[in-house]
Write a structure and sequence with these properties.
897 residues; alpha/beta; 9-stranded mixed beta sheet; 3-stranded antiparallel beta sheet; 43 helices; globular; disordered N terminus
């Protein structure tokens, strides 16, 4: 029988036809039915387009290998690729050519003829795909001959062979593996992931499953398709939540399936070994030999694997395995009913073995199996304090969830660490649950330490939720208890306070907080905290206007993280922020390399990492001309923001989408995005306010861009000038620079070029001081035009701002000549106007670019008084009395090019 959870192939007619001299027999008519779920992520595994010609699919019963075979057949038929299908049965095979949408006619034959059948197909039909299901029913020598013959001829043909089996076939594949000619899929590859389970629920029950219930369903089924199918069938009767709870407790449907299909056919000795193994969790020959008092565990493990049972390999370097959770649950129930004392004794002895070998999670697992709750809770308390800073937060949370609340309450510190782990997983309901357990703990010893731990965990939760106002308040509360805190905890508090205040534009004591945190971390031997802190300090210094200093902090954080062999997961924390900084510096290659290296949503990160990853990769995709890819990346960021309730990430994604749309001329689409995000509001609603946050400023930036393209120039000026003043007082000079560039655009749109250039010149001076670059180029065509005008204003470029202008313009327009376009000769007389000298024209052009008299004097090497004298001469020649009138008149005469 194939393992398509329901009848995927149905026999409609009995045997007909006649045998042949080759031993071929009768005919069956089979009609294909759709598999339960389309495995889209496995579609690409078809060995086409140069992929491996041989694919081996090896999974136990119920993993949907036959469903996957049918899915592949459908895809091949859709692409008009010839397909031959062999269904192996005890003592016979069914074989035939598969055609789309029709009944298939199959011939019966002896298993020994399978190679003959395959040879006939591959000889007569070019580029055929041959698929063999339930190959475990073939005799070993037949399967070996089939693969050997195919592999010997694979260099001379373009055929592909796919073999699906419940157990590993005894086939020599070493050479094919070395040559990359074979792809092997196992049960881990065919487990249903969360997306597939969600789709299955929608298809079967007609509902959209919520994230929490989906997580429960994933845990309960352990990804086993058969269990998912049975649970959903049961859910139609009793509801999904109840069906999941029933599956977790154990259900006769699953037990009967294991009993009939897997356990009963095994020899007695192997059944007894499996029952004992259910008490261990983690299986390796050493622990099994020591605890069971035997010396042949390795042979038994090999026999289990060869039998195609529910044994999964992990930690392959150590030769370790585990039973599939549902199969292990079935076996444990069998042994407990027969001899509970043996089951508990084995689990406790296994726990002691693992603890002696410093494998505390495995020891904990065995203690939970034995229901030794207090001992397990004590072990968790020990493990969590040792391992939390090694990235084990998710594991600690999962372990705590397996304990009764009464046991956990006796070890409240473990509950606090479980809460911290839940914070990193954004499971804030669990955070509150675990902190509640800690608060109500009755233990008196260490009460102050426990209270500090709870308060510190609340602060971390607020930081993960991006509630920086509350996080800052809790940091200040904790600092009142500084005498009772260790150096590491103090370092995290100073760093978190720096983060919280930065997000409220409170930068007055940023340097002092940075130094205080570094001082505390230097008194510990845990560099992990320093990596986190430098990843906060870097963006803070960049916001203060010193991108170079921020980059140095992030480079140091990355170097430190790279040296932490046991905490490689933390590399993404500074790495994604560094990618953003490198992009701003126009080091696009290094920025892109970092973004390719790290997941844009690493499992442990704050919102800053997500914003840096999604917005920076969007900009890089846009620069590469992949606009569709850029919008897709923003869609991914929005999904993350919505799933975790991250308002600042959402605002950043919206702001970047509006900028992207406007850059490419999609004005109406940008305005529609603003309408959907409730951005089309009055200017009063986006003005800075006391205790305003960076999210408020991001939202105001989006509003400003939309106001600019809608012609609301006066309103935009009010908002822009208000934010510039507010940010200047705060010392957030990077944000000031951003608003100066926005203000330059609105002035230019109002034909106030002198004011536009003045704002641009101010932004340029900040760009020079801080090392900023891409902020200018990413603002689009208006800023590009103003930069070109700055470049054309004079050939004299000794001022750092002028050198930056030249770099910016030549980055956008590399075809420009290496000298400026300023006039090199006196202008001829125009309409009775006396010709201007070369110096007068140069000074007039610099004035038109927004330079003040003292700036012009510095550039041309004269006193400010001399510049004023020259300006007066210019006024006299063109018949005006004021600077503004001179610029307008010179433009009308064409003197400014």
């Amino acid at each position: 029988m194939t393992d398509l959870i329901a009848e995927d192939f149905s026999v409609f007619e009995g045997q007909s036809g006649s045998g042949s001299a080759r031993g071929e027999g009768q005919t069956s008519l089979l009609r294909p039915c759709s598999p339960h779920v389309i495995r889209r992520r496995l579609s690409f595994l078809l060995p086409a387009d140069g992929g491996p010609p041989l694919t081996m699919v090896t999974t136990p019963y119920g993993f949907g290998k036959s469903g996957l075979i049918y899915q592949w057949i459908s895809q091949l038929n859709d692409n008009h690729v010839p397909v031959g299908l062999v269904l192996a049965r005890p003592g016979e095979i069914l074989y035939g050519m598969a055609s789309k949408g029709t009944t298939w006619q199959f011939l019966l034959a002896k298993p020994e003829l399978v190679s003959t059948v395959v040879d006939r197909w591959t000889t007569s039909t070019p580029n055929i795909f041959v698929l063999i299901d339930d190959a475990h029913e073939l005799p070993d020598h037949v399967a070996a001959d089939l693969c050997t013959n195919f592999l010997q001829r694979m260099e001379q043909c373009d055929h592909s062979l796919i073999i699906a089996s419940r157990r590993p076939l005894r086939v020599a594949l070493a050479r094919a593996r070395a040559l990359g000619k074979v792809r092997e899929l196992q049960s881990g590859d065919l487990k249903l992931d969360s997306e597939e389970l969600a789709q299955l629920v929608t298809d079967r029950l007609g509902i959209t499953i919520d994230p929490a219930t989906l997580r429960d369903l994933t845990d309960a089924t352990a990804g086993w398709p058969a269990a998912a199918s049975l649970a959903l069938r049961r859910a139609q009767e009793i509801g999904l939540v109840t069906a999941i709870a029933e599956l977790k407790r154990g259900t006769s449907l699953i037990d009967d399936l294991f009993e009939e299909e897997v356990f009963r056919p095994l020899p007695t000795s192997l059944r007894e070994f499996l029952l004992d193994a259910s008490a261990f969790g983690t299986l390796n020959s050493t622990v099994l030999d020591d605890v069971l008092g035997v010396d042949n565990s390795w042979g038994r493990l090999d026999e289990l694997i060869r039998s195609g049972l529910f044994v999964e390999s992990f930690g392959a370097d150590r030769g370790e395995y585990r039973l599939h959770p549902l199969f292990c649950q079935f076996l444990a129930a069998q042994l407990t009913r027969a001899n509970r004392e043996r089951y508990v004794g084995l689990a406790q002895r296994a726990a002691a073995w693992f603890e002696r070998h410093d494998r505390l999670p495995e020891a904990f697992d065995c203690l939970v199996r034995a229901e030794s709750w207090d001992t397990a809770a004590a072990l968790l308390d020990r493990f969590s304090s040792l391992s939390y800073l090694s990235g084990a937060g998710t594991l600690i949370t999962a372990m705590a969830l397996r304990l009764p609340e009464d046991a956990l309450r006796k070890y409240p510190r473990a509950a606090v660490f479980a809460a911290r782990g839940a914070s990193t997983d954004w499971r804030f309901g669990l955070v509150e649950k675990f902190l509640g357990v800690a608060r109500t703990a009755t233990a008196e010893a260490g009460a102050h330490e426990l209270e500090n731990l709870v308060l510190h965990s609340q602060m971390l939760r607020s930081q993960y939720e991006d509630d920086q106002i509350e996080a800052g308040r809790l940091c200040e509360e904790l600092l009142k208890r500084s005498e009772t805190l260790d150096h590491f905890t103090l370092g995290t508090i100073y760093g978190s306070l720096l983060y919280a205040r930065r997000e409220q534009f409170d930068l007055a004591d940023a340097i002092e907080l940075e130094q205080a945190a570094v001082r505390e971390f230097n008194l510990t031997d845990r560099p992990l905290g320093l990596v986190y802190h430098l990843s906060v300090a870097g963006p803070t210094l960049a916001l203060k206007g010193d991108l170079n200093a921020g980059a140095r902090r992030l480079e140091l954080a990355s170097e430190t993280a790279n040296r932490l062999i046991d905490a490689k997961w933390i590399e993404a924390i500074p790495g994604l922020l560094l990618a953003e900084v490198l992009y701003e510096r126009n080091d696009l290659h290094r920025s892109s390399a970092l973004l390719e290296k790290y997941d844009p949503a690493p499992p442990i990160a704050f919102i800053d990492q997500y914003i840096a990853a999604y917005t920076t990769s969007t900009k890089l995709l846009s620069l590469a001309g992949n606009i569709a890819g850029a919008h897709q990346r923003l869609d991914e960021g929005m999904i993350l923001a919505e799933s975790r309730g991250l308002g600042r990430l959402r605002s950043s994604v919206v702001n970047e989408r509006i900028r992207l749309l406007l850059t490419h001329g999609a004005r109406d689409e940008a305005i529609e995005v603003g309408r959907q995000e409730n951005l089309l509001v009055s200017p009063e609603q986006v003005l800075p306010r006391p205790r305003g946050t960076t999210r408020d400023e991001i939202r105001a930036t989006s509003w400003f861009r939309l106001a600019l393209v809608s012609g609301q120039f006066e309103k935009a000026l009010v908002v822009g000038q208000s934010w510039k003043r507010f940010l200047t007082r705060s010392g957030a000079y990077r944000a000031v620079m951003r608003w100066e560039l926005l203000l330059a655009q609105v002035h230019a749109s109002m034909s106030q070029d002198a004011r536009a250039h003045r704002e641009l010149r101010s932004a340029l001076s900040r760009g020079v001081a801080g090392g900023f670059f891409r902020s200018f180029l990413d603002e689009g065509s208006i800023v590009e035009r103003l930069l070109r005008e700055q470049l054309d204003a004079s050939a004299i470029r000794t001022n750092p701002s002028d050198l930056l202008v030249e770099r910016l313009v030549r980055s956008s327009f590399p075809e420009l000549p290496q000298t400026g376009n300023a006039a090199r000769r006196a202008e001829p007389e125009r309409d009775g106007v006396e010709p201007l000298s070369r110096t007068q024209i140069e000074i007039l052009q610099m004035a038109s670019a927004g330079l003040l008299n003292r700036e012009i004097a510095h550039r041309v090497g004269m006193t400010e008084g001399s510049v004023k004298w020259y300006m007066q001469q210019i006024f006299n020649k063109i018949g005006v009395r004021r600077r503004a009138g001179a610029l307008d008149r010179a433009r009308a005469l064409g003197l400014l090019g």
